[in-house]
Amino acid sequence: MYDVIIVGAGPAGSTAAKLLAEKGFGVLLIEKFKIPRYKSCSGILIKKTLMLIDRYFGESVPESVMCEPVENKGMIFTNDKGKEYRFEQEGRNIWRSSFDYWLVRKAEESGAVVRDDTIAVSCEEKGNFVSVRLHGKKADIKSGTQTYTEEARYLLDCEGVACVLKQKIMKTVPAYITTYQTFQAGTIDLDPHYFYAYLQPELSEYDAWFNVKDDLLVLGVAVKDTGKIRHFYNEFLGYMKRYHNLKIEEQIKSEKWLMPRIRPGCQIDYGVRHVFFAGETAGFLNPMGEGISAAMESGYQAACAIADHFDYLDQVYAAYGQSTENMRSYMQRQWSLTGEMAETFQEMK
Length: 349
Ligand SMILES: Cc1cc2nc3c(=O)[nH]c(=O)nc-3n(C[C@H](O)[C@H](O)[C@H](O)COP(=O)(O)OP(=O)(O)OC[C@H]3O[C@@H](n4cnc5c(N)ncnc54)[C@H](O)[C@@H]3O)c2cc1C
Hints:
Layout: E1 2-7, H1 11-22, E2 27-30, E3 44-45, H2 47-57, E4 66-78, E5 84-94, H3 96-109, E6 113-115, E7 118-126, E8 129-136, E9 146-157, H4 164-170, E10 176-187, E11 194-198, E12 208-213, E13 216-223, H5 229-244, E14 247-260, E15 271-272, E16 275-277, H6 292-308, H7 313-323, H8 325-341
Bound molecules: flavin-adenine dinucleotide.
The site of flavin-adenine dinucleotide has 41 residues, from helix 1, strand 7, helix 4, strand 10 and strand 14.
């Protein structure tokens, strides 16, 4: 029996696993894909994320996970009236699969047992512990996969956006935004050191964006209705051609993903009895997909609360809620600022 089973080896899960294992707790970290796993992302580590990595992992992000241009100088937003807002700050440009792999290896080095290619199917409270149903390959079976259970005092659910376990536990279906981005060989008249977000309603139902990764031009749009992806993406390409001299030579790849749709009030779900939530599963996500810092910080705070109050469930909840209070109000302020900038986000004001 483990002390804590953590589901999801993203930034929330790996950060929590590292802290708990370091403190001597028995941790099982479950990941449904083979690691390093792929995750659609713009791959910008903002200054806050870099600071959290130094604090939680005791070292800086290694160069091996970075892509060109390594230095990100901040974000440039264009609002629905065409007005530009510049947010200058030092950041880094990384490939998510390599970055998340580095995080998960750090958790493993600290003593967490990592089991990839294994999906958490369901979980059940049994008195003072949780039984988790898993499907995958176990170390003690020679070949093939099987369904089996593992038990722990607590389950920390860091599944990210799809959060199947959370949906089963809470019997609710979350609202989503669909993201679509392409990687293009080509040229453009924009500074590759910035991340550009466009909030004009004719370009997306949420935001459209541009950044550069290892000489590839990344162009994306986010929509509420997936049937409108093609329309908005074509509008956005037209806009970038007209105003920024975009010239495409060849499309290298495209990808579709999901993002939680944050609603007014920025509701956070901390957990249900012995099952806690962190990262996007809990509802932590700052505007324009800035979610890595929120995932790491909430994973860390959930782990601290469990470690400090292991035998007192109510105190775990109280400590987790208190230590993330500043994050919550920061998140609300950031979404409200976005609501001031563009009509698309008016409900968030
Ligand atoms: C297009 C796009 C661009 C983005 N750009 C940025 C950016 O530049 N900077 C930034 O900070 N944020 C960005 N974000 C947001 C950021 O990616 C997320 O907020 C962040 O990854 C959330 O971390 P997490 O640990 O909560 O979840 P995730 O990173 O999604 O990790 C969850 C993990 O759980 C696993 N999992 C899920 N269900 C199960 C299960 N049942 N059993 C086992 N494993 C399971 C998944 O495979 C996954 O590995 C972007 C998001 C998108 C969609």
